[in-house]
Amino acid sequence: MSAEELRARIVKLESEIELQKKLLKKLEKDKSLAQGQLNAVLDPVARLPLEISSEILLQSLAPEFAYGAQRVPTVLLKICRAWADIALATPALWTTVRIRFPCSYDLEEALPVWFERARNRPLSVSISLVGSLEYCNHCIPDALWEHGGQQLKHLKISDDNKADNDETIRLFWDPRIGIKTLVSLPLLETLRIQGQTHQEQGREYWLSEIFELLRHAPNIVECTFDSMTTLDDHPASERLILPTLRRLAFHRGSDDHILRYLSLPALEELSLPMEGNFRENFLPPISTAPLQDLALYHYSSYSDVELHECLHHIPSLVGCVLWEDDSQVIADLFQAMADLPSLLPNLRHLNIQIHEFDAELDFADSWRMLVRALSTRRLLELRIVNVKEPPPADVLASLRELVLGGIEIYIGDGIRNFVVD
């Protein structure tokens, strides 16, 4: 064959190859479609109504903020077309997001897609700050605020760094403009900020940035600060008003001096360690709040104000929990409750968790003070836990009479209740 004939044959063969490729591609597509139809016929989940199949997939989600909660929906997309269609038609699958930052993928591209699949449902977002943040301009991606801010209902920010370093955590920092302007977070109800629980001194948050976040959450209901230390860069004269905040908790050594900058006209529940200058830091916002439930951890006998004086400023209290390792503090409280009928007039539930009684303290008289205090109040429940020795017989007799009168009383070591046993 001549060169021209060979060239013509090659062109014809190339054309046939392209035709066969298109035919093969169509056959593969038809096979995939048939396989999907067969899977749908055989798959019991795909045969169910969407409401039921969606609920089954929702049950595969991990608890809110648990590890793995973000992966479940994306895994469902890879099983088969039927499951992918169900997952994409179930917005509730995409309302819980867990972000590890810094990360290996582009959050600015991934988050808008994720939030779009959630449609207009409220979002629960957990952000874990892992490893060094030295080369990060900011620690929370703009896409979270720009695309999910209007839907954000629950937010948790935690420092999961395992290394010792002196870095601080910048939540909204841009080195070119400083603190970035946030969008409004109209649905945000709960906020939890957590430091490093495995170290005595972890990385620090900037107080001004925490307040910036709270300032843009006009409907915030609950805040929890756990093992959080802060750099105090907030103007001393400026007080932030949180008119909707009802529950506030400081756990495990968090910097509760934040309270000195807050006005809390709706606060109903408060939990905090009693250390430092109570009169200056805590009394002003607490005494003006309609507090109903208060939990105090390790009230220091070296505080600038005695415990009963603190409680005297909170007459609205209905429930009080005290975690205390200083028996003198508890003895002084019993004395004040016996001598001052006006102290805690609305108290109905008192729970005292004592670590260890002072061996040198004569607690018998304090028990009698407690009986006298109970006889003038309308308490519904009294619990004093970790009591090693039972109260005197006459005290027990009086307490049992109070039980017959309707008060639920537990005084014991965690195993025995000395009052009813």
Describe this structure in words.
- Helix 11 (307-312) links the parallel strand 15 (293-297) and strand 16.
- The chain has 421 residues and is α/β, with parallel strands linked by helices.
- 35% of the residues lie in helices and 20% in strands.
- It has three domains: 1-42; 128-267, no CATH class; 269-421, Leucine-rich repeat, LRR (right-handed beta-alpha superhelix) (Alpha-Beta Horseshoe), CATH 3.80.10.
- The chain starts with a helix and ends in a 9-residue tail after the last strand.
- The longest helix has 40 residues, at 3-42.
- The chain has a twelve-stranded parallel β-sheet with strand order 1-2-3-7-9-12-14-15-16-17-18-19.
- It is elongated and about 120 Å long.
- Residues 3-37 form a coiled coil.
- InterPro entries: LRR_dom_sf.
- Keywords: Coiled coil.
- This is F-box domain-containing protein.
Please, how many domains? 3
Q: Can you give the mean pLDDT?
A: 79
> Under the CATH scheme, which class of the largest domain?
Alpha Beta
Distance between the termini: 112 Å
Organism: Mycena sanguinolenta
Protein name: F-box domain-containing protein
InterPro entries: LRR_dom_sf
Coiled coil: 3-37
Structure, briefly:
The chain is of the alpha/beta class and 421 residues long.
Notable characteristics:
3 domains, 14 helices, alpha/beta, 421 residues, LRR_dom_sf, twelve-stranded parallel β-sheet, Leucine-rich repeat, LRR (right-handed beta-alpha superhelix)
How do the helices and strands line up, and which of them pair or pack?
Layout: H1 3-42, H2 44-47, H3 50-58, H4 71-77, H5 81-88, E1 96-101, H6 107-118, E2 123-129, H7 142-148, E3 152-159, E4 168-169, E5 173-174, E6 178-179, E7 190-194, E8 204-206, H8 207-215, E9 222-226, E10 230-231, E11 240-241, E12 247-251, E13 262-263, E14 269-273, H9 278-281, H10 283-287, E15 293-297, H11 307-312, E16 319-324, H12 327-339, E17 349-354, H13 364-375, E18 381-385, H14 393-404, E19 408-412
Parallel strand pairs: 1-2, 2-3, 3-7, 4-8, 7-9, 8-10, 9-12, 11-13, 12-14, 14-15, 15-16, 16-17, 17-18, 18-19
Antiparallel strand pairs: 5-6
Helix pairs in contact: 6-7, 12-13, 13-14
